[in-house]
Structure formats: structure tokens, C-alpha cells
Design a protein that fits this description.
Number of domains: 3
Radius of gyration: 24 Å
CATH topology of the largest domain: Rossmann fold
Number of strands: 18
Strand order of the largest sheet: 9-14-13-15-16-18-17
Number of helices: 21
Length: 508
């Protein structure tokens, strides 16, 4: 058995089911092993940032890691932006990155790079395999780290893959932190009993259904406020009508100004996405006290349940009834597009939100939608949307994914459409087409800069106009254009009946 074969067997033993891949010469023995050994589904991506973005979306929905296969340092570098987003979403990923054979390193061939250095910027665990006998053991540790919601990167020199002597490793124990800090629970209970202006701020796994049910018990018992962080990897909506901390600094400062105590559950104290002149970086009052009930790596549901029980809260709280709105008509706005989504989305749909400037009120406008999952770009590196939607569809077991995608950021990784077509993924993509980087026009004002003609031309993507339907058709995805909400809704409803992907370019 060679090292590559031991790697594949170990990944399968450790529960890895999918490998998103863009391989090259150094990875061919691993590719050959994937061909010979059944048990890993291989999904190709036409660019590495598509590969890493798909692995991120897969983890967010499956709640377990996939592997990626990337070609040497430059291939890993191509995928760093979406690995950055995945790290911020706490998505576990096992990166397998090929490298030159160890005896070839001294000759400094063209693809040589500081692969470990690239990996360290986005990985919690990095290791370069030393020989074929160590590959299986290293892979088992990589999966153990990824199952705890961290990114691990195993660098695989070509000779460690092709050499005989591989040893298959068994799965290692789960190292997720499931304990509850009893003292933190007691402190939170004391605050909730004695104070009125208390915010329970939920983030990460505290926005999964089970944790929200416990937060609802606490809210019903104490009357505290409950909000979600501004940016979240996955929010399972339909349990609590939770509002998010606003993205904009002024709105966030206004929304949080009355709170004296903020209890953090998988969240951090609200901080600005960027710095702006004369605007504070922290968006909560200086006088407010922060209290940590559970860190992001701890079990939020167990911590909230312990707190609810200590407070003597009712065991069951009824979920709010779904009140679907009517389909709005006319020219789209952010809020009305959200209402349109709420009116038509299937139950248990998955929404990928990379709406950028247009998205300010889509989330709040869709408050009356049936239960669904909502994903966002967590690290601010645009181009996550289409790959993340593809990965979510692969993990979703046939659930419809609705990708709400800004046109400018969509161009970063439009190659994901090819994977959607190849795998017949149930993704309905709505391209929000304003033919400009509108978000940056707003940022100019926010930082106090004064753009002129040259600067404005740099933010214009309408010369020439992009034709998203033709772009989609060129990668095997059918599409159509709409310029009204009712027209978009009709196209979306038709797409839900299809077995594969469909794209709508919506003029905004």
C-alpha cells in the first residue's frame, strides 16, 4: 500500500465522505487512489477558490468536514480567500495540498513555494508529511481537528504519496469542547434575575434550532432581549424572530445603546467591520458589561439549557406561526425582495446571502418565511456565494438552495456554476444586477473620501454590461432575466420544480 492509498482509507475511516478537488501533477497518485478505493465522492471545481468555498458551504449544512485537494502552494493560495471566510464561519475543512517530492526540493523548481506559510494564515493545524508511513497518522489528526470546527492542512509531498509503506489509521476521538462553565451559568442567571436592560447575544452554534429553543425559554422567563450577531455562518430561522445587530456603525450604536449587560453565547462583543473617522470601533456602550456564557467552540445549546433550567423557565415554548406575505410586485427594493423570498421559498430551503449593498433589509424583510437556513459571507472576502451555495446543495440532501448573489462579487467565482450544472445541484441563483460595486460607493462616503471620475470608473462594471444569462448558459446552467419582483418570483417558482440549477438575472 502506498501513502496515497493509506490517506484515502484513513479519510474514509474518519468519516470524510466528500472531496472537493482541483488537482495537478503532484497529486496524481492521490487521484489514482481515489479512483481505486470506493467511499469518497469527488467533486471538481474549476478554480481553487471555488473548491474551498464549496467545502465551507458543505460544513455549514452537513456540520461535518469535507476534504479539499489543491495543487501545491499556488493552488492553495488561489483558495485562501474562501478559507479565510471558512475560518471565520468556524467551518472544519481538511485541505490536502500536494507538493514537490522531498528530494526535488533542493532544486527550487518553478512551483516551489512556502506552502506551509500560506496554510498557516488560515489553518489551525498544518503538517507536512515526512514519509509514506506517517501519512495515515497525519490524516487522522487533520480530520480530528476539522471535526472540531477548525481548518487543517496536510501537505503531501509527491514521494510520500507514491512510495510504499503506507499505514491506515483509525478515527481519533472527538475533541470538541462540550463542557459547560457552571460559574458562567450562575453569573448569567444572577444578571438576568436582577437586571432589565440585558441582551442575550447569539452567534455561531447558538443560532442552531436547539440552542434558539433554549434562548426562547430564557426570554419568556426573564423578558431579556435576544439578538444575533451581525454576521453569521449559519442561522436556522423559524424558531425565534431574531433581529441581527445592524452592519452599519450608526445603526448598530443606536440599536445597542440601552443595554447595560450583554451575555455572549458563541458571540463576541459587537465591533465594526471597518474603522471610520470619528466612529467608535466598539458598537456597544462603553458602560455595558460583557459576560461570556459560552465561547464559540463550546456547546451553546447545553449552556443555554443549563441557564434556562437554573432560572426555572418553562420546558417548552411554542414557535411563532408562519405568516407568509403576499408576493410583492413592482421594482425590487431590499425589503420587498426579502418579502418575496418569504412568500415563495420552500420550507427548509437554504438561503445563501451575498447580496452586499442591496442586502441591508432582505433578512428583516423575510422574517415571516417558513423555517429555513440562512448563510452569510463571514470573513468579508467576496466571492464566497456561488461556491458556498454549491457546497450547501451537496450537503442538503435535495433541499432547494436560493443563492442571492450581487453581480460584482459573483464574478469572482462564477466557475461554480459549472459545478452546479455538472452535479445537477438544486440551486436557484438570483443575480442582483446593478452593474456597479455599489458597496464601495457607500464606503467612499463612510471613510470621508471624495471620489472623482477615475475612481468612479473603477467601480463601474457596466461598460460593457455583463450578461449573466449568457455566462450561465456557457457553463451549462439555464437562465432568464427579470426586472420586477413578480417576474422574478414566477421564474423562481418554476425553478423549484427542476432537478438542477437555474439562474435569474434581476435588474435592481
Amino acid at each position: 500500500m502506498n501513502g496515497a492509498e493509506s490517506l484515502v482509507h484513513t479519510l474514509i475511516n474518519s468519516g470524510i465522505e466528500v472531496c472537493f478537488a482541483n488537482p495537478g501533477t503532484s497529486e496524481m497518485h492521490f487521484v489514482a487512489a481515489l479512483d481505486r478505493i470506493p467511499g469518497l465522492r469527488c467533486i471538481p471545481g474549476m478554480q481553487e477558490n471555488v473548491v474551498t468555498g464549496m467545502a465551507d458551504g458543505y460544513f455549514r449544512i452537513a456540520r461535518k468536514p469535507a476534504a479539499t485537494l489543491l495543487h501545491c502552494g499556488p493552488g492553495l493560495a488561489n483558495g485562501l480567500a474562501n478559507l479565510h471566510n471558512a475560518r471565520r464561519a468556524r467551518s472544519g475543512i481538511v485541505n490536502i495540498v500536494g507538493d514537490q517530492a522531498t528530494y526535488h526540493w533542493p532544486y527550487d523548481p518553478p512551483l516551489s513555494a512556502d506552502t506551509a506559510g500560506f496554510a498557516a494564515a488560515v489553518s489551525a493545524w498544518v503538517r507536512t508529511a515526512k514519509d509514506s508511513a506517517s501519512v495515515g497518522r497525519d490524516a487522522a489528526v487533520a480530520v480530528q481537528e476539522a471535526r472540531a470546527g477548525r481548518i487543517s492542512t496536510l501537505i503531501l509531498p509527491a514521494d510520500t504519496a507514491w512510495s510504499e509503506g503506507g499505514v491506515v489509521a483509525e478515527a481519533l476521538p472527538d475533541i470538541s469542547q462540550n463542557h459547560v462553565d457552571v460559574h458562567a451559568v450562575e453569573a448569567a442567571a444572577d444578571i438576568l434575575r436582577a437586571r432589565k436592560n440585558v441582551l442575550l447575544l447569539l452567534g455561531h452554534d447558538a443560532l442552531l434550532k436547539g440552542a434558539q429553543k433554549q434562548a426562547a425559554r430564557i426570554q419568556e422567563k426573564t423578558g431579556c432581549h435576544v439578538m444575533a450577531e451581525s454576521i453569521n455562518g449559519l442561522h436556522q430561522r423559524g424558531v425565534l424572530p431574531i433581529v441581527r445587530v445592524p452592519y452599519g456603525a450608526a445603526a448598530a450604536l443606536e440599536a445597542l445603546k440601552e443595554f447595560e449587560h450583554i451575555i455572549l453565547v458563541g458571540a463576541r462583543g459587537p465591533v465594526g467591520f471597518f474603522a471610520y473617522p470619528n466612529i467608535p470601533s466598539l458598537h456597544y456602550p462603553e458602560s455595558a458589561a460583557l459576560h461570556c456564557l459560552a465561547r464559540a467552540e463550546q456547546n451553546a445549546e447545553t449552556a443555554l439549557e443549563s441557564l434556562a433550567d437554573l432560572l426555572g423557565a418553562q420546558k417548552q415554548i411554542s414557535a411563532p406561526p408562519s405568516r407568509r406575505p403576499e408576493i410583492p410586485i413592482g421594482i425590487p427594493s431590499s425589503e420587498s425582495f426579502g418579502r418575496m423570498l418569504a412568500a415563495i421559498m420552500p420550507e427548509q430551503a437554504i438561503v445563501m446571502d451575498e447580496t452586499i449593498s442591496f442586502g441591508a433589509q432582505i433578512y428583516s424583510g423575510s422574517i415571516d418565511a417558513p423555517p429555513h437556513d440562512w448563510m452569510m459571507v463571514t470573513g468579508g472576502a467576496i466571492g464566497y456565494g456561488l461556491p458556498c451555495a454549491a457546497g450547501a446543495a451537496l450537503a442538503g440532501g435535495g433541499r432547494r438552495v436560493i443563492a442571492a448573489q450581487a453581480d460584482g462579487s459573483g464574478m469572482y467565482t462564477l466557475q461554480a456554476l459549472w459545478t452546479m450544472a455538472r452535479e445537477r445541484l438544486p440551486v436557484t441563483t438570483v443575480i442582483l444586477s446593478n452593474r456597479k460595486y455599489q458597496i464601495l460607493l457607500g464606503e467612499y462616503a463612510g471613510v470621508g473620501a471624495n471620489p472623482g471620475r477615475t475612481a468612479l470608473d473603477m467601480l463601474d462594471i457596466g461598460n460593457p454590461d455583463l450578461d449573466w444569462v449568457k455566462l450561465a448558459n456557457g457553463m451549462g446552467v439555464e437562465g432568464a432575466k427579470a426586472d420586477t419582483l413578480e417576474g422574478c418570483a414566477a421564474l423562481m417558482q418554476g425553478s423549484f420544480k427542476r432537478n438542477g440549477p437555474f439562474l435569474i438575472e434581476l435588474a435592481i
